[in-house]
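Review form for a predicted model. The reviewer records the input and the model, then writes brief findings.
Reviewer: anonymous (R2)
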Amino acid sequence: MSEIHNVNTLKLLLDSDSRKFMAAEIELQKALPSWIQKANSVKLKTILQKYFDLIKRHINRLESFFEEESYSYLNAKNRIMNAFIEEAEEKLSNCTDSKIKDACLLAVVQNINHFKISTYGTAAAFANTLGMSKTAVLFHECEINEKQIDDRLTQLAEFEINNEARNSIAIPEFTI
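Model under review:
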């Protein structure tokens, strides 16, 4: 089945949304390795690596969903995720202090994470309404995984990253 143009049923809406968040996962999977390298905090790097591994698992599980439904996601785009990634790259390029960069990186990943929690939760609700229990479980598990990453990021922000960023001393740049 090609890209959906007319969405006039809840099932078609779920299918269309599923394609878009599969595209979002793929785009995020491409961006994360660079962000992991940019992180200064070992704990942040570790959480981001776990998130990267989680995204790979989500993609594999979603591929199974698409195979079962006989749908293609290959041409799908997610403008929202692309905007998140573009904004993140711009913000990160403007951070000159490693502790500030860690705070920025954590914040942009958490913004993306909150978007994904919402999309997976909505997809699970749609699937439940449609009586697609196996699919609902898949999306609900992805939502739970995203919430777990969010909790880890929140703890790291509250107890380490934000405090270190607050205490960071800005050194003025001198030109010769």
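Findings: The first helix runs from residue 10 to 38.
Further findings: The chain is about 80% helix and 0% strand.
Recommendation: see findings above.
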